[in-house]
Amino acid sequence: MKIDVEKCVRCQSCVAYCPVEAIKVSEKLYIDQETCVECGACLKSGACKFDAIYQPELSWPRVLRGHFSDPLESHPLTRISGRGTCEMKTNDVTGRFRDGEVGFALELGRPGISASFADLEKVFMALAGRVEFEPLNPVTSLLNVDTGRLKDARIGGERVLSAIIECKTTEDRGLEILDILKRVAEEIDTVFSVCVVNKCRGYEVPFKKTLEEAGYTPRINGKTNVGLGRPFVE
Amino acid sequence: MTHTHHRQGSRESLKGDYVVLYMLDPEVKAQRAYKAPLKERVKRLNEICLRYEPVAISAKYDEKRLRYLKGWEKRMDSGVHLSSTLEEIGRADELLDEGLGHSVYTNREALKGVLKDLKAADLGISVVVSGVFDDVFDVCREVGIVPHTVNMSLGTWGKKELLPESPMLEICTMCGHAMISVKLVESLIERVEKGAMTFEDAAVEMGKQCTCNVFNTVRAAELIRQHLNRKS
């Protein structure tokens, strides 16, 4: 996003709307291009009454910022808006996560901190070779699933509001993956939220017990796919 | 998307916050073709979701994204954020982005009504509820639904010192895509404190930025009220 200095009257109405504080106030208002994640929140808000905020055409690799940060954009790979992932929301019709498996969705940059692809690469590398990455995921498409390295090193410096790494393993290896995540959490320059996906057995959640026995405390709230999708996958 | 997942807050506060998400998987064509025509099923889904007084609901009609938030009046429209009425949502027969929609409720009984009716309607659309697990599972038992898969949160890891404080964190995490800036929440709370804005209008201005429309304005107004009470 950019500000047309000819139109801007420096009223600063837009400043508070930026989730990553990229709108800087000096002699002229400007958007710090390194910090801006191209989410478009400033423009969408309508805070500027003088049409001074505009979206320039983005080229590779900066275009990735918009794909990942603007929830109204559908990601080209998955055709899904938001962050471009389905994860367990349609597991009742896809069977993506089966009995005895545990899935992880690691959203880097959330909530509201933002993340670079260099951070994503660190986490991806730590997991590579130890998990099965979700193929229909925008992050997976940009990294080498064997080495964990970015396929195009130029994107390492790009920042996004958040991006989700999705992977799965078997229940017996779930705690090992969490140990790896604990270590890599200390090496990155942002935050990530940790989602743990598990298929129910009746009204029981098998991996929840494993987590609790290992000293983890899952939050009291989360998401439940209630199994109304059809055709149903057992 | 994990955007309705990591909503933060106390048990008491979260008990007034249930998001119902409905989705068609882009890869499963048979789900789109299940039983009745899709438009007919989506219309029925919207009718059911509207029956139980949602505080937020989104839909699509005639290529237009429709958003209803409790308390959002036309005078508050700005930028791309345009309000819709519940009547307009009732006419909708399409899901957003070719397969997605949400509605938000403030109590367990409403959730129970929605799930009971959706089960009876057998629309074939996947339904995910974000909320306190104990309550969601109890409701499932009461209406005869067996949960299929859960997504648990182990919270936030990494540089947690970067996270905002309460109540900004609770309010901002009601938009999982982080479109509501901490600075905006702070400045709106300040305006409420000065008497320049109502709790409810401040909550709507915050919620408008959440383009997926999963923000709970009732809960947000209450969080602001509690915060200012504590301060005074």
Features:
heterodimer; A: 234 residues; alpha+beta; Alpha-Beta Plaits; four-stranded antiparallel β-sheet; two-stranded antiparallel sheet; 6 helices; 20% strand; elongated; B: 232 residues; 6 strands
Beta fraction of the residues of chain A?
A: 15-25%
The ordered string of helix (H) and strand (E) elements of chain B is HEHHEEHEHEHEHHHH
Gap between N and C termini of chain B, in Å?
38 Å
Helix coverage percent of chain B: 40-55%
Hey, which two chains have the biggest interface?
A-B, 85 and 85 residues
The largest sheet of chain A, given as strand count, sense and whether it forms a barrel, is:
4 strands, antiparallel
* Secondary structure tally: strands of chain B: 6
Spatial sequence of strands, sheet with the most strands of chain A? 7-9-5-10
Q: Detail the poorly predicted runs of chain B.
A: none
CATH class of the largest domain in chain A: Alpha Beta
- Uncertain spans of chain A, ≥5 residues at pLDDT below 50? none
Under CATH, the topology of the largest domain in chain A is which? Alpha-Beta Plaits
Arithmetic mean of pLDDT of chain B: 95
Structural class of chain A: alpha+beta
**CATH architecture field of the largest domain in chain A:** 2-Layer Sandwich
For the terminal residues of chain A, how far apart are their CA atoms?
46 Å
Number of helices of chain B: 10
Main sheet of chain B, how many strands, which sense, barrel? 5 strands, antiparallel
